[in-house]
Amino acid sequence: MRWEGEYLGEARAAIVRAGTVDELEQARVRYLGRRSELSEALRNARELAVEERAELNRTRGALEAAVAERLEAIERAELDRALTEEVVDVTLPGERILRGHRHLISQIRREVESVFLGLGYEVVDGREVENTRYNFDGLNFPPWHPARSPHNSLFLDRTTLLRTETSPSQIRVMESREPPVYIISHGRVYRRDTIDAPHYPIFLQVEGLAVDRGITLADLKGTLLHLMRALFGEERRVRFRTHYFPFTEPSLEPDVSCFACDGEGCRTCKFSGWIEMGGSGMVDPAVLEFVGYDPEEVSGFAFGLGLERIAQLRHGVPDVRLLWDSDLRVITQF
Fold this sequence. Notes:
Helix content: 25-40%
Largest sheet: 8 strands, mixed
Structural class: alpha+beta
Number of strands: 10
């Protein structure tokens, strides 16, 4: 009866002496592990008498029960100690959990959408990969225009390119429906611009188009004034300067009165009191004829603005590259 006597007593004593989980595991391995004397005897149990085999099994069962009982006692003691000694001060401030939020450009995009949805406009998506028919021909770009050059636009082949503006979606919409048309289109556009503080080869643009009977320049001015006041403040003023764009005639560049100095002149507006915002004008009759509209029956206006430019001007971001670097030190400020 050596196993149920001397061996079992020695093992039980070691198990009871174990004060931690690690010490208990060491005792278990010593007396119940694969290399223990008991396990070795069990592997050769076929050569033993029936009674001795039964003794080995009873010893193993008793030790396994002792280990489980001691483990439960150690865990219960550890829990009692933690509840007694490890006091949590509930008055201490908790750790701040950082939560994500929309990027500044996405915030401005949603603001612009909200303004025009309130005016009854429809938001449409366009294709980032376009062909020259919609990117240039439909927008009345003459064959000699610099934008058609591979030095200025990103061509994939002779007639396919990454869109240089979101205007092609306006042509597609007008081809698919009869007027009236009131839409805005926004998204990424691509140009071969040298990267510097105000320029990046990829940027986001929003363009608007209104085509209906009796549309005039006054409608364009009122629409842009409403947008600028929504983005920069109710006291903003808008002025227009003549310009040239292939797809509008007449073509105008809108300026908004500087929100930093209220038109008195500062570094933000280069001491002019005005900030250039983009391009606009009345839709050229050639564009209306291209999509099958009668310019004698309908007229329209169009405009285009850069979302990064709005972000830079409104929040004083000195370099457009900061909006593309995903630097949390910049992004979390807005």
